[in-house]
Amino acid sequence: MNREPTAAQRRVIDAADPVTGRLRGTQAQLTALVRRGLAFRHPRPPHDHFLTPAGQRIREGSPGTPERQEQQERQEQPRQPAPSTGVFAARVGGAREAAPPSDAGRLREVRGAWQGLLELRRMTNPDGSTDRPCGWERGHLVRAAALALEAAGHQPETASTPGYRVRTTPQPEAVAVYAPDATALSACADTLERAGWQPGEYTEPRTGTRYLLASPRRT
User: Where is the segment annotated Disordered (predicted)?
Assistant: First the structure.
């Protein structure tokens, strides 16, 4: 079956919640997306519709496309943020990352995104558990780890302030987390462990820099 959505269906996909993948549209649109394998209807009330992994790939760009490559580059090398589009993005930290224009507004966004992620865990983990990461987090490791840290009150590194940095690693299902000192690194480890991750502290052989290697817990 052809899974390419129509223009109207694509607008519904693009407007999905950036964290949970929750969809809003007419019943006919949602049903059509389910038939194409791009969405699913959650079995628990209120029976909302959410993007499947295939639907997420269409929204974000398939692997190998310029859109997907650009997204991966943004995760690995943070840049100055573009003008706000109303879409939440986790702050992964880095010297080129600017502070948000409003601390109070950012705090509300982060809290809302974290609550949405906990709800996604409840709805997509087979046992409804919220104490361990879900499939979305395992597919967006850097963003998920950064959200857990920021939601707990940790500050990301910027051009003017020290803080955490989250980076990709060659190891599957693992991110590297850096912090300005041993105390901050230990605090990040405690936060990630409470959020359902398995952090371990390591040392880079060439530089002697201490960092965390963190993976989402499965059980």
Answer: 1-20, 36-86
